[in-house]
Design goal:
441 residues; Immunoglobulin-like; 9 helices; 20% strand; globular
């Protein structure tokens, strides 16, 4: 679905999207090989990212099948998987020597899938895959890197992701204060375990110097498989004099559409802001968590303007009241004044209870609409930008977040993140004026 940003306004063309229909084109940009430029028996296959895909399906064939049906599986495939959650896959061809042709390539194709495993695109055309058993095999996970110069890339709470080797049961992640590839004697400052090919660092990583991370695969018994990945560096520093900071939960931390995390900057609304901002958000936060970490995480950056967006996790749970969320926001506002920071509060978009249950198996407080309405009206009495007002124009008759704006019912997808940023960009001057007046009272 295309999105047109015209000045400060967002125009979203009407389009019906269904997970069970072929709403997407066939994948493109598939890895190309030749007999002269083969890959190893652990070839890394990749294709252009489909920002609407939850997963992908890959089939491998011994020969180039003419007139193969692009809309259905083919029984002649000797390898098939749907457990592919990024637009890359490390194929374990070395385990399939008996199925490989003696001379020439195998052929592969890929298509995009929805949450329930239904195709949302046709298969790509068959592409030849040439390999050479004499080439060294890939024996470590491959980190997914972030463009450190891109808007939204500066995250106080980094998220590490990598391409999962097919033989890995889990992973070990190490974080360093210097590059372990250049300084092998370095000891990690943190050591973590993850069952999936992604890890949300629970600790803030700030400082004038860069941090580095690496990952290795583990087998079912927890023993290492192969080597450590190459190290990857990142840096989020208060010394860079950030004028704008963003403080919130997962909606601001980044990610969406279930399979995309903060490393996928297309799913961060900070990417679409007119001005750069440092991301001080942490996924899973309640307003009480935000309050508790203010001095540690916000004060060192001392931004002039702090965009504050939190409360969705509180209000969709029946364990927390509107009053407690309001008290926490009042306390955050007070801390801003104590530390010479100008707050700008963002009202909350709606959620979709059925989609939250489908994606996360979580229930939502039946009174969430009343709680959100009271909380947003409370925020409107402060220096604010009314993000919720933008979503009201696109909400369903039930006043819920429509699926085309947020597939999992909680985290806005790309168009939803653009909608947040477009409202901020459009109302920025007025919000700054209100925050300045508040500050000078």
């Amino acid at each position: 679905m295309s999105v047109l940003l015209t000045g400060s306004l967002l125009f979203v063309p009407t389009m019906s999207v269904s997970g069970s229909t072929l709403s997407q084109p066939a994948p493109s940009g598939l890895t190309q090989t030749t007999a002269q430029k083969p890959l190893s028996r652990t070839p890394l296959l990749s294709w252009d990212k489909n920002l609407d895909a939850i997963a992908y399906e890959i089939e491998i064939f011994k020969e180039n099948i003419k007139n193969i049906d692009p809309l259905d599986n083919n029984e002649r495939a000797f390898f098939h998987t749907t457990a592919v959650y990024t637009n890359s896959y490390s194929l374990p061809l070395y385990e399939m020597e008996g199925n490989l042709p003696k001379n020439g390539p195998v052929y592969w194709r890929v298509r995009a899938l929805s949450l329930d495993g239904q195709a949302i695109s046709p298969f790509s055309e068959l592409v030849p895959l040439y390999t050479d058993p004499m080439l060294p095999r890939i024996d470590a996970p491959i980190p997914r890197t972030i463009n450190q110069n891109a808007k939204g890339s500066a995250m106080l709470y980094p998220v590490y992701s990598w391409i999962r080797p097919s033989n890995a049961a889990s992973f070990e992640i190490q974080v360093f204060s210097d590059d372990p590839d250049k300084n092998p004697s370095m000891k990690p400052v943190a050591d973590y375990m993850s069952p999936i090919a992604e890890f949300y660092d629970p600790a803030p990583r700030m400082g004038p110097a860069a941090f580095y991370w690496r990952v290795r695969s583990l087998d079912d018994s927890g023993k290492p498989i192969g080597n450590w990945s190459k190290s990857t560096g990142f840096r989020t520093s208060p010394t860079d004099n950030w004028e704008i900071a963003v403080f919130g939960d997962s909606i601001s931390h980044g990610g969406g559409h279930i399979s995309f995390g903060p490393a996928d900057l297309e799913y961060s609304w900070l990417t679409y802001l007119n001005s750069p901002a440092v991301n001080l958000s942490q996924s899973g936060n309640l307003t009480s968590d935000m309050l508790a970490r203010f001095e540690r995480d916000v004060v060192p950056f001392h931004p002039k303007y702090l965009l504050i967006m939190g409360g969705s996790n509180d209000l969709r749970s029946d364990d927390y009241s509107v009053e407690s969320a309001m008290q926490n926001m009042d306390a955050i506002e007070k801390k801003c004044r104590e530390h010479g920071i100008r707050p700008i509060f963002l009202t909350l978009p709606p959620v979709n209870t059925a989609n939250i249950a489908r994606a996360f198996s979580e229930s939502t407080d039946p009174a969430w609409k009343e709680k959100f309405a009271r909380f947003n009206e409370f925020l409107r009495q402060k220096p604010h930008i009314d993000v919720a007002k933008s979503f009201a124009a696109y909400s369903s008759e039930k006043a819920e977040l429509p699926e085309w704006l947020g597939y999992d019912g909680l985290h806005e997808d790309i168009i939803g993140k653009q909608l947040i940023a477009a409202r901020i960009n459009a109302d920025w001057e007025n919000a700054v004026q209100a925050a300045d007046e508040w500050f000078n009272q």
